[in-house]
Amino acid sequence: MARRIRDAMDMHADQLGAAELDLLARPRTVSGLYRGEMTLPQPGRFVLELRVDVDSRSSVSPVMNRISGDLYQITRTVVPGMPPKVSQTYIESWIVDHPQVTWSAARADIKGRVRFWTGVHAATTVAIRIAWPGSPPAVSAAVTFTETGGAQRSFSCRQQTDCFRSVQLEIDVCKSVNKPPLRPAYDTHWHDNRPTGLPQRVLTIESAYREAGVCITVEPTSTVVDDTAAAFSSWSPAELHDAMETHFSHYGGSWPKWQMWGLMAGLFEDAGVGGVMFDAASQFGGAGKAPERQGFAVFRNHPWFDSLVPGTPQNQAQAQAMRHFLYTWVHEAGHAFNFLHSWNKGRPDSLSWMNYDWRYDSRNGADTFWNRFPFRFDDDELIHLRHGNRAAVIMGGDPWSSGGHLEAPNLAMAQVEGDAPLELIIRSKEYFDLMEPVLVELRLRNLMTDMPVVIDKRLAPEFGGVVVYIQKPDGHVVQYDPVICAVGTPEFHMLAPAGAGEQGEDRFSREIFLSYGSSEFYFDRPGEYRIRAVYQGSGDVLIPSEAHRIRIGIPASKETDRLAQDYFSDDVGLALYLQGSRSPFLAKGAQVLEEVAERCKGTVLGAKVAMTLAHGVSRPFHRIALSGDPASWSAAERGEGAGEVAPERQSKIVRTAAADPKRALELTRPALQVLREQKGKEVNLALARVVRRRAEYHQAVGDPERAREELGTLRDDLAARGANASVLKGYEALAESIDSDGPQRRRRKDTDAARPRKPRSRT
Amino acid sequence: MRHIPSLWAAIVLSCIAALPGAGTAEPLVSSLHLYLAEGFANDHVVVEVDGRKVLDADGVTTKKLTGLAMQIAPVAVQGQRSRVGVRLPRKGLDAAFEVDLGKGSHVPISIENGQLSHSVHRQIGFM
Question: Is A659 helix (H, G, I), strand (E, B) or coil?
Answer without folding.
Answer: coil
